[in-house]
Amino acid sequence: MKPVLVEILAIGDELLYGQTQDTNSHWISIELDKVGYKVVRRTTIGDREDQILTAFTEAEQRADIVLITGGLGPTSDDLTKPCLAKYFNCKLAIHEEALAEVTAFFKSRGRELTEVNRQQAALPVCCTKITNAIGTAPGMWFEKNGKVFVSMPGVPHEMKKMMLDVIIPKLRATFQAPALYHQMIRTIGIGESFLADKISDWEKSLPNNIKLAYLPGLGEVKLRLTGTGDNMDTLKEEINAWVKKLQPLASDYIYGYGEDPLEVVIGNTLREKRLKLSIAESCTGGYLSHLITSVPGSSAYYLGSMIPYDYEIKMRQLGVRPETLEKYGAVSEPTIIEMANIVRSKFNADIGVATSGIAGPGGATPDKPVGTVWIAYSDKHKTVTKLLKLTQDRQLNIRYSATAVLNLIRVNLPA
């Protein structure tokens, strides 16, 4: 079955200036993916007639469906309606049903319908009107040479209701899409190029209807398998079979599947094993604890944390020995070992973890440059440390360090 291709056009100078963020296109892509339609391009266009008309022409060549947001207001800079009328070679005229709807909208709010607002009911005569149930700007549906153009308001809640209630059902009745299925495999502890090399033979053997994408993130790489076929159940079985073939090749690095991030996976494991966690974090300043506690139900396994940022607090409150700090410094393996062991003991936890490092931009020494971070994991059987050599960016160093600790927990949890 032929894929159904979609292009999304977002119109408005405010989007290009960065004054308004285009969340509409992102949301539309997600909803279309659910019904098996493939978005091939998302384009942002300013309020210029020539650019809008060019975008219409190019989108029609690429896509079966062109979805347009924005530019439907009643003022002179709203050009979408006149551009659509020109593109489809028809005039603008007051649509009586649309006029009744916009009149009722203003009356219900005790407001007078001005001539400017009356023009909201002026539509290209060659379109099919789409009622805006919660706003004043109607949507418009056009058909040409087997292609469909749909224009919607740029106001997110108006667009979303129109899409869900009218446009997606109407599109599905017009275009039958093949089954489209994604499976996400989440890996950590290995770089993208090293992972690609490790699974290259498996990747080369994938059938034509299953594509692999590498999605590198902060300290992790997500592998997305996307398959197309005629039957969803058959397609899921096929992709799951390929996931099983992948597992022996990357089992040391795969931590989960689907949308759950590492802190959720770690939390689920701690809960299942009935283990309690405590944290002493210095350079991460509470960010690691934030990740852990962002998971609902984390109180089942998270006992608490200390943030001994200062030398004195590390000694007096946490209990790191003064001679350790004096001899090795706060950013050192001996110090991080004591931090992890002490916080585990103080909180009577099964697991204690700790961070200490130089997040930057200051505080570096020749032997400890910015990005030098020690992390540690401690349980009753062992204490494991790791030296990280990270970036010059403070925020990245904090986030990388927290992710690295989560992975340290993952690989060292008792069986």
Number of helices: 16
* CATH homologous superfamily descriptor of the largest domain: MoaB/Mog-like domain
| Helix percentage range | 40-55%
Total DSSP E strands:
17
Query: Which oligomeric state applies?
Result: single chain
Structural notes for this entry:
The chain is of the alpha/beta class. The chain folds into 3 domains: 5-174, Molybdenum Cofactor Biosythetic Enzyme, Chain A (3-Layer(aba) Sandwich), CATH 3.40.980.10; 179-257, Alpha-Beta Plaits (2-Layer Sandwich); 262-412, Alpha-Beta Complex (Maf protein). It has 16 helices and 17 strands. It has helices spanning 13-16, 23-34, 49-62, 80-87, 96-108, 115-118, 156-174, 192-198, 200-204, 232-250, 262-273, 287-293, 311-318, 322-328, 333-346, 394-412; strands at residues 5-11, 38-45, 65-69, 92-94, 122-124, 128-130, 139-144, 147-152, 179-188, 210-216, 220-229, 254-257, 277-281, 302-306, 351-357, 372-378, 383-389. The strands form 4 sheets. Strands 2-1-3-8-7-6 form a 6-stranded mixed beta sheet, sandwiched between helices. Strand 7 (139-144) and strand 8 form a beta hairpin. Helix 2 (23-34) packs parallel to helix 7 (156-174) and helix 3 crosses helix 4. It is elongated, with a radius of gyration of 28 Å.
